[in-house]
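To assess whether ligand presence alters the predicted conformation, the chain was also submitted together with 2-OXO-4-methylpentanoic acid. Input:
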Amino acid sequence: MDINWKELGFHYTETDTIVRSAFHGRWENGRLKGEWEEPYATRDKYIHLHLSATCLQYGQEAFEGLKAFRGADGRIRIFRWRDNAERLQRSAHALKMAEPPIELFGRALRLALETNMDFVPPYDTGATLYFRPILIGTTPQLGVGPGVDYELAIIPSPIGPYYPGKFHCTTFIINRRVDRAAPLGTGAYKVGGNYAASFRATEEAHLQGYDCLFLDSKTHRYIDECSAANFIGIKQTDEGIEYLTPRSNAILPSITNASLMALAWDKGYKVTRRHILVEELAEMQEAAACGTACVISPIDRVIDPDKGRMYEISRTPGPVLTDLYQSLQDIQYGRAEDKYGWCTILNKKHTN
Ligand code: PLP
Ligand code: COI
């Protein structure tokens, strides 16, 4: 194996195995009943799928993203996996799919780690082992409706930073011509369709060297989120530091954001989740995208071409977000006490 850990970006690198578990069910009085098979690891990364499967025909697909960190002490920590398992259940429920039991998800994840230990990047390389759980509908059918067969797979891949550069600023651009998610649609769930729906806007932004900031699709006045991350703003007033993040039915409840809110609260900051007007960007001293893949990615500017405005936020990563980033990573890499109980240590022995 020849991986240059320090050069890894957010790209797929094949590992030894993926882990799979199939569900076969039937409808009983309007309820889906069935059994999950015990997760197993396989070297085969391909599946034999009917072209009429409900994931292909009607978009029955949900996914997750979580990471294992090799710590300063050689132990491997998985961050808040139960929260990902629960969120996958909510996404499955939203698309009328079978919900993988939490403990089954946990066993699958453990197997995915144990059969790919060599792919957990060394400490201090900036790289981690990312797990991409996916859930797909596999029933072949033409009728418009949910199927009865599903497959859960956990795909590991070592990854580096989501945005190039470890803690570099990114510029975001607002696009009012493409909506990512409807107010009562699937925006709050991690389903593939949301991402496909955002590609037109994100690719347009990337071509200009930016990333895309989505607004609420009803009024286009409030900040929703980034294409693959939540939004955070920091305001400093005479009363102290405020951590601001949007409240919206159409954004993903980010586990990273929830963790940062807890850390911010414990640091004595005011933590506020509410509707945030685009114009409020002018009052923020710091802003960032946050999520599992991007951790905290500071935002230097936000461009609003429709309104002819450019919000200059902070040319370099600001002190508040830098400190939050450090506090979160200290817990994830085992450099600080995990007083929140967020990390699950999967190898009790040191394996540096
Ligand atoms: N919002 C979207 C649309 C995402 O894809 C992600 C990534 O998972 C997030 C927010 C951040 O969520 P989390 O912190 O749970 O990874
Ligand atoms: C994550 O942060 O884990 C994500 O899933 C976001 C994106 C890469 C799709």
